[in-house]
Specification:
Blueprint lengths: L20 H19 L6 H9 L8 H12 L2 H6 L2 H4 L7 H20 L12 H12 L6 E7 L5 E9 L9 H11 L3 E7 L9 H15 L4 E8 L4 E3 L7
Parallel strand pairs: 3-4
Antiparallel strand pairs: 1-2, 1-3, 4-5
């Protein structure tokens, strides 16, 4: 007698529906999160870090696509973090929450780099590398040139860093008079100036060398020392002091 009590042989075999995209995305995030927490930073690439950072920050909830779009637009995660908010908003899928998440991450990275700056900042000290790294964190990943100033007190401790001027992809002006005025306002005893080269080369131009000399002469008139001029890129830095240019 055929086994038809439950009608199993007569029922068509149906394909199970695929899980919704949101389920797949959530499962992927859990895997990424677990890998990061278990194995550390080296276990995830920068696109995946952006994906985790942006999870839940936009309406589409597809942080993987948004992270990929940011890498395609800016080249690296670091450049995305350093981008201006108006530039970030031009990336499809970016919301104000996503922009704020990236700028908050950048601010925390700068704060961590500043924590590593030694109590005494001098190019002759062995821990001056931390100062160079701080300079790179401030400006190394910018899309256009920025000229910044670090103000130091009598003990050569960092008082503040300030954006002096923002320029183009290949030039930014520097005004010695304004640097002197700000140094007096800060009651600074020494100054380090820095600017970035978005082209990736740390080679100083003739204008860079002449500008450094003008700033040095101007600061001497108010008895403030120019300790160094640092040129930074995403991967390297050049110290005028260490290179014999100051």
């Amino acid at each position: 007698m055929p086994d038809t009590a439950c009608g199993f042989h007569d029922m068509p075999i149906l394909d199970m529906p695929a899980p919704p995209a949101s389920v797949k995305r959530n499962a992927r995030r859990r895997r990424l999160r677990s890998r990061l927490l278990r194995a550390g930073r080296e276990a995830v690439d920068e696109r995946e870090l952006l994906e985790l950072l942006l999870a839940g920050c936009h309406a589409g909830n597809d942080s993987a696509a948004l992270a990929a779009g940011l890498i395609e637009r800016f080249g690296t995660a670091s450049r995305a973090l350093a981008a201006r908010p108006d530039r970030l908003r031009c990336t499809p899928g970016m919301t104000e929450d996503a922009v704020a998440a990236l700028k908050a991450a950048e601010a925390l990275g700068i704060a961590m780099a500043r924590e590593a700056v030694p109590d005494a900042v001098r190019p002759s000290l062995g821990n001056y590398r931390e100062v160079i790294d701080y300079c790179r964190t401030l400006a190394g990943h910018r899309e256009v040139e920025e000229f910044r100033t670090l103000f130091l007190d009598r003990r050569n401790a960092l008082i503040a860093d300030r954006l002096h001027q923002r320029g183009t992809v290949s030039h930014t002006p520097a005004y010695p008079r304004e640097i002197c005025i700000r140094a007096l306002e800060m009651q600074a005893s020494a100054v380090i100036v820095l600017h970035n080269h978005p082209t990736g080369s740390t080679e100083p131009s003739r204008a860079d060398i002449e500008t450094t000399k003008r700033i040095d002469r101007a600061l001497k008139t108010i008895e403030v020392t120019l300790l160094d001029h640092v040129i930074v890129t995403p991967t390297a830095a050049l110290s005028f002091k260490h290179s014999g240019l100051l």
